[in-house]
Amino acid sequence: MTRIFAGIVAALWASTALAGGPVAPVAAPAMPPAPPIAERGLEDEIIYFVLPDRFENGDPRNDRGGIKGGAFDHGFDPAHKGFYHGGDLKGLTARLDYIQGMGVTAIWFAPVFKNKPVQGKPGEESAGYHGYWVTDFTSVDPHFGTNAEFKAFVDAAHARGMKVYMDIITNHTADVIDYVEGEAAGYAYRSKGEYPYSRRGGPDGAAINPGFAGDDIADSANWERLSDPTFAYTPVVREAERNVKVPAWLNDVTLYHNRGNSHWIGESSVYGDFSGLDDLATEHPRVVAGMIDIFGSWIDDYGIDGFRIDTAKHVNPQFWQAFVPAMLARAKAKGIDHFHIFGEIAFEEPTATLAAQVMAESDLPYALDMGFAKAAQLVASGKAPPRLMAEFLQQDAIYPGGPGTALGLPTFLGNHDFGRFSMFVREMSGSDEPETLLSRVKLGHAMMFLLRGVPTVYYGDEQGFISDGNDQLAREDMFASRVAVYNDNLLVGTNATTAQSNFDPAHPLYRLIGELAAARTASPALRRGLTTVRAFDETAPGLLVVERDDPETGQRVLIAFNTSATGLSRHVEVSYRAAGIAPLLGECPSTLAAPGAALITLPAFGFVACILETDE
User: Fold this and answer.
1) Which of 280, 309, 330 is the last residue of a domain?
2) Which of 63, 88, 273, 344 is catalytic?
3) pLDDT tens for residues 301-318?
């Protein structure tokens, strides 16, 4: 078991099991407090990402969202992995002490806006439990509670010194618009060249939208000339859904691209419908102004602390160039100086290239660190040598603003879209031996907390959730689940399954995350230190060593990981400014081996963080 220097280990307390019905708040844990919200920069945060529907059911009365009928009407079926299960804002609020007990300082949750309850073709139906099929951007989905309960959640989090990050969508709404020609055409994407805005149904069609000068002209008068939306498909909306979207301007079909389904490449990546979801014309000045008003109101009315932006790379860069400054200005006017905005730029390669490119093109300040997730999966599993992570970290220079920008990138190991980290480790290592799997999962979490970036824990990972795949298969219930495909997995680090409630603060991963969080909170170099790669094994699992230097305080921390199944001992270079070495996390050497060198000894899958003492 790792140990923390200077007595910063958090006290751990007994698990509180929740029975059915409304939940009672749990006792506050003894965890060293983080600095006050207003004083914390983005690099100081530790994020916990949660799907409210899958976390805790605080009020069973809202399980059906006030909608009558069967599951295909209200979307509630706790035995189906793709439907609502009953989690809500009251349940999340009641578990804030459990979350904070890990040292978490910010909660990011999947969208809570009102969703279309169920959509999909017959036999392919699923529900909007995840929050990404929005119909009303101004109201909390009744399955999760009310706007008043959302305010109570934000207030309760703030009272504990915890920030609240909303997951927002500007790219699309729920699937309400259909196309007259859609089914016959397979909803295939119709490009701007083959189907220009100036003709109906292709270059040989009837002339429409006279005077429209193109979608790259951000002028309201120009866009008013795009009054006929039948250039590619003929959009149609069922009478029952004609006015379902809120604010009302979202019901105007001319504010959507209406070009069919994206195939995720080239032009279609920005102009196509995301798996059938109605793709907003985010080039349109009305859409830009409308989205700024919508999400600015959530800042004004609730004082939230940040946005994670869904499908950010599927929106034109000019939209973000207007939206981001507007949100930062609204936050600053509210007294929120450190408003965290990070976009989802999805890819599955251990590289920084695409994220840096989109950030530079769009003036997005930060992005979810997809490259880190893939590098950590490959290296912690032993699938790739430490060289991969070393070379990935050395790409920090390409981000806009350089390596300092990388400090604010939220890092993660797995999520609700790709799958859980423990699943990747099991598959990539080719072994599910319990102790080895737990050790590798611990190693990955140590990388996330000790290397640069803002660590982001996916709910349930602290209880050993493992998943069987991506998407719905990686969205298990924290409360007792009724989903068979979830409940047949033995969780990592315990004999439990998801068939029982899992809020155990004695779980080895929960305890480890608490220790890592405490070390990070205590060390400015772990939060704000720039990275120098000191050593790495090139062709096989083994040693990775980095040094992190905080320029403001001068603190230096030496961090080492052993990704191999055998122990190792190695002399590594350290800064010549170091006059001594002291433990921060794990078993550090008592003295330097020589000026500019330290002897690092690690067991299999071990890790250590040591303060390099200087005379400065």
Assistant:
1) 280
2) 344
3) 999 999 999 999 999 999
